[in-house]
Amino acid sequence: AEAALRRAQTLEAVGQLTAGVAHDFNNLLQAIRSGLYLLSPHVPDRSRKLVDASLQAVDRGAKLVRQLMVFSRRETLQPRPVDPRALIAGVGELLQKAVGPPVSITTDIAPDIAPAMVDPTQAELAVLNLAINARDAMPQGGRLIIGARNARLEQPQGAAPAGDYVVLSVSDNGTGMPPEVLERVLEPFFTTKAVGKGTGLGLSMVHGFVAQSGGDMRIESRTGEGTTVSLWLPRAAAMPAAAEDAADPVSLPAQ
Ligand code: ADP
């Protein structure tokens, strides 16, 4: 419990730091963007490619920074009933762009799936984060399964009290994690990915979001076999009306 508290405090501090830095960075990137934009009609043709590439890089940076801002602005969570089918459909669309052909994506949704009570945009980003990790764990290709089922917690677990839950899961048959990695994945900034590839914030932020939503996250992983991350999200009383389903659009980090 003490470790969990320390982690929550670290994460809180990291969240505040991230929000501040992301905000300043965003302003800087906007300044660079306008500079490049104003410059671009005046550069000779042979340098145009360079300016275009710089603009694209700035846009990618801005996208990442916006996601960090969304994730670290904890107070803006707006939980409402979300249809897991709609959520997964939204993520699937984005995933098709991020996950290349060697990775096949399938969904496994219980026919009687209940609505979850979560912030739809954050939930979508959370699943997207897990899916990107899954993709990264399958460089040679593989199978990614996004599942949704109803479940009951008889005992409280993590931040989740006993009760009814909707479990969203992301499974891959990639590299899996050895125990010494699994032990550390919730540490902010812990990453095994190459510099510039991973921030080490993904799972900590997903865990923070889920805990703040009154749910819990479970990770099962075996080296050489794959990983399943499950998000236990509180169940909502009723499905949303169709028009309320759609989450705000989110964008993928370009990689
Ligand atoms: P990042 O993806 O930026 O490294 P995360 O917090 O999302 O940050 O993940 C931390 C580490 O956990 C990753 O660097 C990787 O070693 C491990 N990891 C996460 N998801 C998976 C997965 N699906 N399969 C294998 N390893 C994973």
TrEMBL record:
<protein>
    <recommendedName>
        <fullName>histidine kinase</fullName>
    </recommendedName>
</protein>
<feature type="domain" description="Histidine kinase">
    <location>
        <begin position="20"/>
        <end position="237"/>
    </location>
</feature>
